[in-house]
Amino acid sequence: MQIELELLAPAKNREIGIAAVDCGADALYMAGPEFGAREAAGNTMEEIARTVEYASRFGVKVYLTLNTILYETELPAARKMVYDAYEAGCDAVIVQDMALLKMELPPIRLFASTQANISTVEQALFLRDLGFDRLILARELSLGQIAEIKRATGIDIECFVHGALCVSYSGQCYLSEYLTGRSANRGCCAQVCRSLYTLADASGRVYARNRPLLSLRDLNLSRRIPDLVRAGVTSFKIEGRLKNSSYVKNSVRLYRAAIDSFIAENPGYARASAGSPHGGFLPDAALTFNRGFTEYFIDGRRSKWGSAAAAKYVGERVGHVTASGKSPGGTLWFEYAREKGTSPVVNGDGLCFVQKNGEIAGLRANSCSANRVVTTESVTIRSGTPVYRNFNFAFERELEKNMPQRLVDVALETGIAQSGKFLVRAMPERGGVLEMEFETPFPPASNRNLALENIVRQLGKKSGIFLFRVVKSSFPGEIPFIPLSRLNGMRHELAMAIMEAAERKRHDAAPGTRSGISAPTLPEARLTYLANCSNSLSRELYAGCGAREIAPAYELEHRGGVELMRTKYCIRYELGFCHKADPARAKQMQEPLFLINGGKRLKLVFDCIRCQMFVIG
């Protein structure tokens, strides 16, 4: 039996979800009206149901994100949303709050969100034994750690492979709540990790000023699919429920090609849905939103992960300014020396420049000729300033105008049935057989070869989302002469019948089954303190699993001196003051160290044995 590999794409809305399906996604994840970890990416249940309807044509699954912590008054609404998701045809619900496991729910699969901080074997075993069907692992894990969790649990494993990286272990970041009152665990993170900070010691000595010191590059594991499969990953997740359609299309096609390449060389694996994209644009990850790329901790080694001078998307470097000035009419112009291997700037391109204070200045290229750019916007640009293109007009048009078409491969066998009628046996790529018999009140063909050629050619075409191929024709006797119009009609009837059969199968089958939860024993490290308990049901669950002390969620009770963030990222290492990498230089940096922003000081604590950094409020 083949192992199915799933490419999981974000869907901010139905339009982007459909684009992801067309580009080759095997599954989508999207939020309902509330309780999603991206507050600005909500959808009505009607929109989700319509997305499911389109996705199901290809066997593409849709998962609802219900992955915030829940307050007591929200429990009935959250439970109702699970039922609504089930009725809408969703295949699973992604969960952070354990209260849902104490509710009576429909037979729909539950996935443990990365917000549940699944970073150890012990935590993974605990969540598996609670009854989750899939674990979405922390981004900070190495291949070895992923493989260890897979061996220990044997459960379905999902991992992020592309997109923005939270600097903190997900679900364990309270920095946004502390600084702005907007909780990441409630879906309204203010992304304060992308802000500018000054790093200083207790004496006031400054080591870095006004830099995005907590901002990471974006993850890109497109070349590591084989390694991840060998580690036990079967679902490859692209981050980005707040991203636009261009980003989703581009990244989905990139990973569709990477996964298909692996499957082509490894017959024991298969796609998790039907159909594949035909034609269309060629992906290039560098040309849509990113902060620069990293493979993070996948090899179990530390490297430079910070997004350097800017936390925003600056795009590809296309050259540097050689001269600039203003025309008599007051419009700005500049000339640039183009970077080798890049295309020239064209009308409509978006350009940006990183200023000395770390801020990004942007403009739109209104008129371009040779190496000269004219814009109506007012920006100060000095000679030598690098020029970046963060909106590639030509590529964006290609993404919009040259979309692939997703087609389901259907093998056909033709012949004459025992009834004497014309028989077509259709076998869609993901299994199942559909037989249809057609009346053929037509005379025998005078030219047997030509008649057979017509049957093969006319039936073996596209019809709707299906790409038909005649793989076998068996006519021991005479071949009927079937007009081309009738063959075309047969092909259309086949397509309709296959679609209707798929619809019946979807409606007849429940999205999943739930066997109920057990009460596993909590890992020792979690017995005395549990974060993110924000309602009576989650406290009841943890108490039933042996918790001796359950602290209320930080959002309910702000506590002084609390750990606001725990991260594999280390500012000392990033700036070259690591105790392990350069002990002599490390002595030049005096602890305690503080991040300063808007008058607030955040203390940094370093656990060099485990290579972790803590931000303390």
TrEMBL record:
Residues covered by the Peptidase U32 collagenase domain: 387-501
Signal sequence, renumbered to the chain: none
UniProt-recorded name of the protein: U32 family peptidase
Native organism: Candidatus Egerieousia excrementavium
Taxonomic classification: Bacteria, Pseudomonadati, Bacteroidota, Bacteroidia, Bacteroidales
